[in-house]
Design goal:
Layout: H1 2-34, H2 41-61, H3 69-74, H4 78-100, H5 103-110, H6 113-123, H7 131-148, H8 160-180, H9 186-221
Length: 225
């Protein structure tokens, strides 16, 4: 009886956290959209990961943890880095899309990650997949296309493809999260994401700045050529 009550409590806690996350994501996306003129997608992603790392670290310091932070990072599997790389790529691609295309259309296209997730979980994780689940997922994707009409047949804004690509990378991120979740608790995964994500974003920011400077130099040299 106690076990059943514990599972039920965990279920409701999970639903609560999912609801809070679902409510916060549109707020975050709206801020990124509003600040598109003053901040680049890479900078926005860097702020996102740095905030996540700091808040998770403060949260962890207030709890009794079995592992020390040094032991945690020393025991990381290479899959952790792959997972964070796909998450960073997902956020950057999605931020590029919402800063240059319609926010609602970008979000709608991003929901197509469910189709990728269903197919990849069946191929990679060997999860059972009934025809009913596959049909429902396909119908949901068709619904996305219907909502996008009449723009879907022309895709006048090429930046919408970034949202579609981010849906695929997000599906891979979820698959790796499920695999690592069997070993690491969510708090530790969030902390590692914050640290690795911040480091990766700093590298991306340096590359982004370097490429931008090259572009400016080439534009300045064009009249002389």
């Amino acid at each position: 009886m106690d076990t059943t009550a514990g599972h039920r409590r965990d279920l409701w806690i999970g639903i609560l956290f999912m609801g809070i996350a679902a409510a916060l994501f549109p707020v975050k996306d709206a801020f990124v959209k509003a600040a598109s003129g003053s901040i680049t997608p890479v900078e926005a992603t860097l702020v996102y990961y740095f905030t996540q790392g700091v808040t998770t670290l403060l949260w962890s310091l207030g709890l009794k943890t079995r592992r020390r932070f040094g032991q945690l990072f020393m025991s990381l599997r290479p899959l952790f880095l792959i997972r964070t790389m796909f998450q960073v790529l997902t956020i950057i691609l999605f931020f590029i899309s919402i800063q240059n295309a319609n926010l609602a259309e970008s979000v709608i296209l991003f929901t197509s990650n469910a189709l990728f997730l269903v197919v990849l979980s069946w191929l990679i994780l060997k999860e059972s997949m009934s025809l009913r689940k596959m049909a429902v997922t396909c119908l949901g994707f068709v619904g996305v296309l219907i909502v996008m009409s009449p723009h879907i047949h022309s895709f006048g804004n090429a930046y919408l493809w970034y949202a579609f690509a981010s849906a695929f990378t997000f599906a891979i991120y979820l698959l790796t999260t499920k695999t690592l979740g069997k070993t690491y608790p969510p708090r530790e995964m969030l902390l590692v994401d914050g640290v690795l994500g911040t480091c990766l974003c700093l590298i991306c920011l340096l590359v982004w700045t370097f490429l931008t400077n090259i572009e400016i130099t080439l534009i300045g040299a064009a009249p002389r050529l």
